[in-house]
Structures are given as C-alpha cells and as structure tokens.
Amino acid sequence: EIADMQAVADSEGTGIRIEPWDYRYYAEKVRKARYDIDQTEVSEYLQLDKIRESMFWVAGQLFGMQFVKIDDVRVYHPDMSVYEVQRDGKRVGLWYFDPYARAGKNSGAWMNEYRTQEKFRTEITPVVSNNSNMVKGKAGEPVLISWDDAVTMYHEFGHALHGLNSNTSYPTLAGTSVKRDFVEFPSQLNEHWLRTPEVLNRFALHHKTGKPILPELVAKLDEAANFNQGFSTVEYLVAAIYDMKIHLAATPDLRIDAAAFEKQTMAEIGCPSEIVMRHRPTQFGHIFSSDGYSAGYYVYLWADTLTDDTFEAFTGAGGPYDKSVAKRYYETILSVGNSVPPDEAFRRFRGRDVDTDALMRGRGFPVTKNP
Asked: How many domains is the chain partitioned into structurally?
C-alpha cells in the first residue's frame, strides 16, 4: 500500500516520503485511480424500503422468521413502524424501526432492547428496535441510501436478530447480554448477507427502472472491499496493543506518562513509521472514559475474526443460505446468550477453536485455508 502511494507522490514530483499525515490523502488518490466507484450511482439501486425488505427476507431464509407489520401499538413518533416477528405462526417478539433523522434525536445508528427475552417465571418475548438517521424524502418518492448506510442497517439488524432469537431462561443472560466480542459478532456477521447475489438481484433494484444493480458495479464494490486493509488492520492493532499494555503496566503507586508510554510501546512492537495511533492516548475515550473497553479495545477485531470464520462455515458448506449451518448457528450461538461461555459456544458451532487466519483471508491477505 505504501509503495502504491509513494508511486503516486513520485509521479506528482512532490519529492516527499509518505508520512502518517500523508497516508489518507494518497490512499484516496490510489483508491480513486484503481476503482473509481460512483457512490451516487450505487445509491440509485439502494432504496431504504427495499433494503429493509431484504433484511426480513434473509432472516426468513436463515432463521424461519416472518415480519408482519402491525398498527395497533403505540409509538413515540409517527415515523416509526412496528412489526410482529413470528416463527411457525408464533410470536417471537416485536421489532420497531425508527429510520429518519429529526431534531433532538441521537446521531448515528443503534439497536435498543426495550424488553429482554426470558422464561424464568413466565415466557416473555423481546421488544427491540433499530434506529438510524436517514434523510426523509418527499412523499411518494423512495429514500435512497449509500452503500455504507446499507451495511450499517444490516449490522444493526444483526444486533436485533441477536435479541429476537434469544432462547434462555434468565434475562440477565439473554440476547445481547454477552461478552463485548460476542456483542459485535452477530452484527458484523449479518453484514455479509447484503453482498450476496440473492439479495442484490432481488432487492438492489434501480428506483426508476426496477432493474437489478449492474454486475460491473457489484464487481467494483467487491474489488474495493479489501482496499487499504493493511493500514486498517495495523492501525487498529496498534491501538489495541497500546490499550492492553498500559492497563497491564498500571499499578496503584505508578505514575505513567501516557505520551512517553506510547512512544515506548510503538518502538517495542515495531510500528511502521507511516502509522500513528488513531487517537492520542489522553483522548482515547474508549479505554479511559469508562471500563467498557479498557483493556478490551481489541474486541472489534476479535469479533471480525469470529465473523469471518463463521461465514466460512456457510460458504464451505452449501453457501451463505445453507439451512443446516444456519440451524447450528442459531442453536449454538444466536439463541444461547451468555448461558454458555463464548469460547465453548463457538466450539460447539465450529467443532474447534477459532481459526484466526480466517480474518486474514477475509481481508484479502495471502494465507492458506486450513483443511
């Protein structure tokens, strides 16, 4: 990646050597030259309602779920819609959808669990929501979203499926009440189904012509999916290692200079000179503002590892919609919450420990697949 960027800088006669402050600027130049994806053209095929329908369809194919719109429950804003989630005619839970931006609403996208599944005293079904900040269009016109927005919708819906598919006795162990890495595991896994031909050909339809997304656009998206993964992976690992090291070094009577500790850590791990930490240590909110991610910033990457290994279980069998693998995933991981230790849950699903090389394969690095 650095060689590609250096070649661009050299061709411009800049006389520079790529430094951390040059990285993103020249990476974007390389990306545009190599892939030249028109995101506006892509969004012409991504209608909000169709993407929502596609998520329902995938959940039906994998977990036998049906989503039935209901109008007899109260909502806190008229933009919200509510669906009764069913399996074999029986209620599984309720799913609320609050897609549009408005004054006073939090930014970003997230999943809420208003009521957790349990069977302790009586059977209680979950109530969850997905919330986002799409720009509401004119009446009668489809809302077009970006590819990144579509990925985010699938991600957050993965959290919702985690809550809806819960099947445990105790609410404290149900749904998304799991270890940090297992919180992000089902959500990041769910992103994979957006890119499948079954979804794109059925639901990524041009808002005017109704025709499926062009194969050449899909090919460009596939080619660009792993662009700059060297930088992304190393930059993340640098932050995660720093987080772990500084928490291991801390003692009640030791005063640590965060900046000096950063310099020492970067030298110890051999951090490439072209990369610096994504956050200055004293502004690294994830690891210092609370205990939520302290000594645990690595979990996002570990969740990606679980995700890639799990999706390989599907593709290595009958494909992304293999019923037997989906059933095993539901029974061993998605439904058990924290009633089974996560490492044991994964072994029950995969028959072995996590193959960390799956992450490298998923990111396009040249590693062989274990038999």
From this structure: 3
Separation between Cα atoms, residue 190 and residue 197, nearest integer Å: 15
Active-site residue, from 1, 44, 118, 156: 156
Quote the tokens at residue 200. 């794109």
The predicted-structure confidence for 326-355, as pLDDT tens digits, reads as follows 999 999 999 999 999 999 999 999 999 999
The answer to whether residues 173 and 239 belong to one domain is no
Q: Are residues 176 and 268 in the same domain?
A: no
Q: Is residue 337 part of a domain?
A: no
In a domain, 66, yes or no: yes
Q: Where are the beta strands (DSSP E) in 145-273?
A: none
Return the number of other C-beta atoms located less than 10 Å from residue 273's C-beta: 11
- The pLDDT score that the predictor gives to residue 35 is 84
| Other C-beta atoms lying within 10 Å of the C-beta of residue 292 | 11
Query: What range defines the domain where residue 27 resides?
Result: 2-34
At 311 the pLDDT is: 98
Give the closest residue to 284 by CA, choosing from 247, 231, 248: 247
Active site residue 156: yes
Q: Is residue 164 a part of any domain in this protein?
A: yes
Amino acid occupying residue 88: D
Residues whose CB falls within 8 Å of the CB of residue 64, separated by 6 or more in sequence, listed in order = 87, 88
Question: CA separation (Å) from 41 to 54, 218, 337?
Answer: 20, 11, 40
Answer yes or no: is pLDDT of 369 > 70. Answer: no
Both 29 and 103 in one domain: the answer is no
